[in-house]
Amino acid sequence: MEDLKVTAGGYDFKPARAAMQRYVDNNLLSGISWAVMVGRDLVDVNCVGWADKEAQTPLRTDHIFRVFSNTKLITSCAALLLMEEGKFALDDPIEKFIPQLGNRKVLRPGATSLDDTEPAKSSITIRQLLSHSSGLSYGFFDPGTVIFKALNDRGVHNPMTTLAQMVDVLADLPLIYQPGTSWEYSLAIDVVARLVEVISGQSFDAFIKARILDPLGMVDTGFVVPVKDQGRLVAYYAGADLMKPMEPGLTRTDNAPFPGAYLHPVARLNGGGGLVSTMPDMVALIRSLLPGGKTLLKPETIAQMMTNQLPDGQWIRFAMLGEMPGQAHGLAGGLILQPSPLLHPDATGEFYWGGVAGTQWWISPKRNMAGVMMAQRQMAFVHPFSFEFKRLAYDAVKEGARAVA
Q1: Which residues pair with 45 in a beta bridge?
Q2: pTM summary value
Q3: How far apart, in Å, are the Cα atoms of 237 and each of 159, 219, 224, 365, 377?
């Protein structure tokens, strides 16, 4: 397990701590923890609030969190390890390894039925899967659409089905746009998890345990919380209104995303959102992607991860939020090319992603800093606390560097 001892002083995180305490006091978060690094040195580690608000259990760094879409970083790294071994090239068509995903149909704009399609002009590539530009969808972000209904009716998210069975469902459904022509958050990374299984000949959980979790000492990361550790699983909460993240009120929702989730094995090794982890484990993972020591991937692979994979002028776009100008995507997370007013000006070039319940990670080459945040409150993409914390963290690191100089 990663040691979370602060190893570099001179950084004032008191404003950040006070801000996070305010979210807890105002009943917007039950608790939140964080770790910030400059280089590979930890400059702040802290927890405020509760792991279990009702039981008044103080949050600790060893508590276990549902990391949801932070899982995508591990899945992407797993695939890139195989790429480094020459097992595939980024621009290989996916049907080279998963034949049923070839010869795609694409929904025409405004389609009202699954039959209103045209042939795909090109194959889906592995690069497009890793950068969410393949034409696949999650479905649940576009309620009422043809693909939303189809994906849900056919049980594509059913945790009792395997990755192979999920791919079989996707094989019978059209894409929502021509591969490479847009961006949509999607099941693409779950397809990447299946790709890892096909190429490696191992189950996805076995592969990441052998190649990522064990080598990095990530002892608490997995698809299931062992019985002996279930007392460390943080309570999960929904806010008063999913679309109004600053409206006070928390409701216990431990049975999300399905009853008994993470407490016993299920068939779906959800490469897009199925892992649990802890602060020490996530710090170990992020540290393994930073210069200055041994890295999980080759430095050139890490640089490629943090390079925009989308065409010029193409940005991240969420159905509920619209296009996010200035935000692009690499091979394992988002990239901030032009910071919005919500972000710190120094966030240019930041590589990041997060989960729907508030777990977040980021790496800022410009400021030589990185961080991890852990919370368990369901929100619809916009996590106001994370924006505020990161702005204050950037300020703290900037001021600390100035004081040292």
Answers
A1: 35
A2: 0.97
A3: 21, 25, 19, 33, 5
